[in-house]
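User: what does the whole thing look like in 3D?
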Amino acid sequence: MLRLPPFRYHRPVTVSEAVALHLECETGQYVAGGTDLIPNMKHGLFEPPDLISLRRVQELRGVERRNGELRVGAGETLASIATDPLVLEHAPALAAAAGQVAGPQLRNAGTLGGNLCLDTRCTYYNQTRFWREALGFCLKKDGSVCHVTKVGKKCVAAHSADTPPVLMSLDATVELTGPDGSRELPVADLFVTDGIWNSRREPSEVLCAVRIPVRPDRRQGYAKLRQRKSIDFPLLTVAVAADMAGDVVTSVRGVVTALGARPRVLSGWDELAQGRRLDADLIEALAARAHEQCRPLENMIVDVDWRRAMVPVYVRKALAQLVR
Amino acid sequence: MPTLLTAFPDFRQLSDRRGRPWRTSDRPSTPAPGSAHVGQGNGVVRLKVNGDVYEVGVPEHYTLLETLRYGIGLTGSKQGCDKGDCGACTVLADGHPILSCITPVWEAEAFEVRTVEGLADGTRPHPVQDEFDLNGAAQCGFCTPGILCSAVALLDRNQSPTRDEIREALSGNLCRCTGYTKIYDAVEAAAGRLREGAP
Amino acid sequence: MIRPSRSDHRVIGHPQRKIEGLAKSTGRAVYTDDITLPGMLHGKILRSPHPHAEIVSIDTTAAAALEGVHAVITGRDMPVQYGIIPWTPDEYPLCVNRVRYIGDGVAAVAALDEDTANRALGLIDVEYRELPAYLTPQEAAAATTDFIHEPKKPGHNGNVTKRVRLEFGDVDDGLDESELVVEGDYFFEGTTHTPIEPHCAIGLFEGDGKLTVWSATQVPHYLHRELARVLDLEGAKVRVVQPLVGGAFGGKSEPFDLEFCVAKLSMMTGRPVKILYTREEVFYAHRGRHPFHMRYRTGVDGEGKLKAVDAEILLDGGAYASFGLVTTYYAGQLLCAPYALPAYRFDSTRVYTNKPACGPKRGHGSVQPRFAFEVQMDKLAERVGMDPIEFRRLNFIGEDTRTINELRITSNGFLECLEAVERASDWKARFRQLPFGQGLGIAGSTYISGTNYPIYPNDMPQSGVQIQIDRSGRVAVFSGGSEIGQGCDSVVAYIAAEELGVPISHVRVLRGDTDFTPVDLGAYSSRVTFMLGNACIQAARELRAKVQSAVGEAWECPPDRVDLLGGLAVDTADPARSLPIAEAFNLAEARFGTLGATGSYNTPKDVHGEYRGGTIGASPAYSFTAHVAEVRVDVETGIVEVEKIWIAHDCGKALNPVLVEGQMEGSAYMGYAEALMEEQIFKDADHGRAGLHNAPSLLDYRIPTSLDTPAMESFIVESNDPEGPYGAKEAGEGPLHPSIPAIANAIYDAIGVRLDRLPFSPPNVWRRIREAEAGGGLTKPGAPSREVGVAP
Ligand SMILES: Cc1cc2nc3c(=O)[nH]c(=O)nc-3n(C[C@H](O)[C@H](O)[C@H](O)COP(=O)(O)OP(=O)(O)OC[C@H]3O[C@@H](n4cnc5c(N)ncnc54)[C@H](O)[C@@H]3O)c2cc1C
Ligand code: SF4
Ligand code: FES
Ligand code: FES
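Assistant: Here's the predicted 3D structure for the full assembly of 1315 residues, as structure tokens:
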């Protein structure tokens, strides 16, 4: 059996305790559902001497509607988000995305916070220590070269979480609490292009909640490509949201992920769409614009040309959900 | 009375050998606020499994699966993939299927664990266990404990599942032998028995 | 069920529970890793990080000095070569001076726990000198130096494991005379078994010199022999115990490094030692389906009858021989039914490459050529203008016949299989008539029901069973059969219950232990039901006769008037007269002494051709299968949905129809999985490191979930084989074969695109569709133009 490296296990019950522990341990790492971190630890990708569990922190729980926003606690499991009536009503694309993460058991344990903080993934990285050693390791962990770009000093491992693109398309923000207090950040600003640590969240900060503006005029869509219908990480995820004035688009956003280290916000969509009806022609044009921008890398084992060709297909699928 | 088990030979042996302290009790620093819920001083975990309370001495980095199998001796839950990919280690946490191979054992103090050994009512197997046998739903039987846990979780909330609901509920459990068809048959038959009032 | 079967059986032929069924569903079933022995140590194996290298030196001192480490071994501790095929021993339990793939075992440790063992591995210092690695069979075949194994003769290419060239009839003439010849190149990607249970073994060497090894193996007898040979122990002091096995599919059908290592480590420490593979190690142990590069030329005459088949096959064998000698033969030998081939030639070559060794996977050696051949058949039928099912009927070989390569066919229910799937799928109304994007495909196949020749030449039985009867009415069956999930422990219980008239619950099956069970050669080549079943019938009937005779004596009637059934001995002429079965047993024991009998089965040895290799592929009987697959193809994404597979299989006689259907569905599922997603592939130099397994995990080596797997419907065909137990043949491997070509042919029906390379994963299908579009667009193929005869 693959073994976990040794660690000490801490179980705070409040966010402030968690943050204090993190400060104190120096080398600690938060763990929520553990469905990403624990397998990664079994691969020797993380060896934190201290694990700070967030599962008992009640503050991270709950879904509520307040001040025109939907606030979803980061500790909510994906399974509960997928079936939560408030989420289904105000952020159906989030429910859909959460409901398509991994398989049922993983959704019962995995959390929204963990999904937003998911480590990037790469065929040269998500492997056992033995395998990575035979490879000669890579830039992201224990090594000095990137086997995908071959030259660069940048890791391009794939951001592979299902919910962030949806949250970005819905203009959501995250609440972070760290040793220096709390702050808010648009989800769109949470990610950076560095696959080694692709987040603006400081390691000591707890992601407490996600806030999603409630907009009755907003339509949402979500499409995921994966090879099996369960368990698999996305090969491509597309989230779209359109704000409508009657039949006419006032603004439309598309976010694609599982390409590089951060989700990509599709550019040039508003120019194409503003003031137009959401018809087949417009969908086609938006899909074509998406295709121009998205170039998957060989960070997954799956044919990059095909993945690229699937971008417009899945953009269309997602946009089709907006048509009433 | 909880049973106190210290089944791990390495529990005693490892602590001093490792070059760095790793057991909570050996920790030099005292983590601060509300230290009551910090770490687990003596490495004895208290688990509720199938209605019994066990106190087991385990190394702090053990998973729930390792503790069940090698600590408590409940070997029904299986290990197929090491890391969350196959579902063989599925157990119920307060009735919800989770993967015990990636659950740190300390987390399991927070819920009641039910394993395949806890599905039967004494000597009377759960209807779905019986139907698995009648329908040939277990070939090698290695995926079976995990699948049964997923199936029982489904049947606990829905006694008239459609075939698609069954497929969905079992979609995190890989079976390499059966092609799943006989498993669906068994779950459907068990649902029928439950609807008729079988315990 | 198409053919009526003998209906006077009370147990056989009816749905029954499995004897270990409730143990499995309540978590009580014991598998190897469920066993913990007092004082047990845990072993780990250090593996090579290089695909091909010489071992210059190994320093184990630091590892041995680590507290908690009890023993460290290297290849030099067991310098005896072994191999499952006695003619090709080319492996050491641990590599001695050369490593041949990334993952090859180099050293092993036993320590108090796994963590310490892992740390100890990190302290072993191995110095390697890297050698050029051969990763494709083409490279390996062209090599002139640094062969993966020493050439057997100077001047030979050491990378060639085996080449077989056989010709039956005159193929060149046959092709010349053909009205139409279809030629095709095919590629079958390697796949691996992926049982959900990883390999596990425990060794215990005791002070009296006895060695016991518990192992998740499907060949306890061969393991027994090899342990004794390699470790230089007397066979009589070696015991192999086989707990329940959590799936195998051919992946546990030869000895593996862990079994030798636990034994040796226990011999050194005097303590039990367990090794459990990680999932990653299971991928390195492999022995799965060989990648096959295949070229076929198939000719038909003006009527649509096959004239000649010419095959050229290159097998990518990986680093060791394994069963490769047999695979190389099977690649050609098993193609000669269910269709009559008037002339047939194959040239099949297996080469070594620096990757984990390939071996037997469910449908050993014949799944790959069957894929190619059945696609060829589909192409021919279309060109000839015939419905592909009619085309197959026209070429049916018949029963009680010989194939062109002189294999003896006895019972043959292939036509019934075709009819069953044709009817169930509503073929006639739907083939070539579904809307674009949807399609139906047909394929047929045959498979051996056990191989006539054991792996090491000997004249002893292939299978033996011993039965002992107790005064309580309990029947004990000592069975050497390897229960790997297919139900062979239950089958012997059903047979004992049938013959001796006791309820199944009064039969105990004592199994999986070479100390008290007669030899059975193992669970491979679909031999178990046929051979073990016959052996069991023999033993049971001997006891039955004794009981009948003793009761007859007591009742003063002829013994054949006494029937044993339903827990009673009954007078068939006077049904009012009966005895509880235990009393009948007591009469027999009083009359004959303690009641025990053995039964054995050996294969017929005169049913093959008198040519070199003619014995390979010879079987006492052959199973037959036909599938229809229905697919839906999304031409935009390349995603193929297999909606349903209709499976008809001639298993001779279904001893328990539930188990037979389970084998049929499990096989069809596995074929579907190989068709659509599975690939045991490796990185090349442009992608990280040549020879590294692409993704040794159950996340990235994708096997289908419940949501992916198609609906399946099974039709059991019973041809009642004259030599099979109650007429039974095999059901565990045959039904895999047609899945893959049936799906390929269905995709063609759906979109008019041929897929000659596996797998039909979305990217691969998408590429083929784009090529087809570039070459003139996609259309649904046209309906067959005529019943018989070559299209103009
Ligand atoms: C087989 C398999 C398939 C999967 N498939 C998918 C998939 O299809 N799509 C997908 O998106 N994911 C998938 N996952 C990954 C994972 O299950 C989910 O992303 C899940 O949401 C992670 O949440 P978690 O709570 O388990 O995270 P954890 O593993 O607990 O944590 C992940 C990371 O986030 C950090 N973290 C967690 N919570 C917080 C917080 N509140 N504040 C600060 N940091 C935090 C942790 O320190 C850690 O670094 C899969 C995993 C497996 C094993
Ligand atoms: S993208 Fe490059 S650096 Fe990043 S994980 Fe993959 S190989 Fe390593
Ligand atoms: S063993 Fe836990 S998911 Fe495979
Ligand atoms: S019964 Fe063998 S894996 Fe499911």
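In plain terms: The domain at 1-57 of chain A is CATH 3.30.43.10 (Uridine Diphospho-n-acetylenolpyruvylglucosamine Reductase; domain 2). The first strand of chain A starts at residue 8 and ends at 10.
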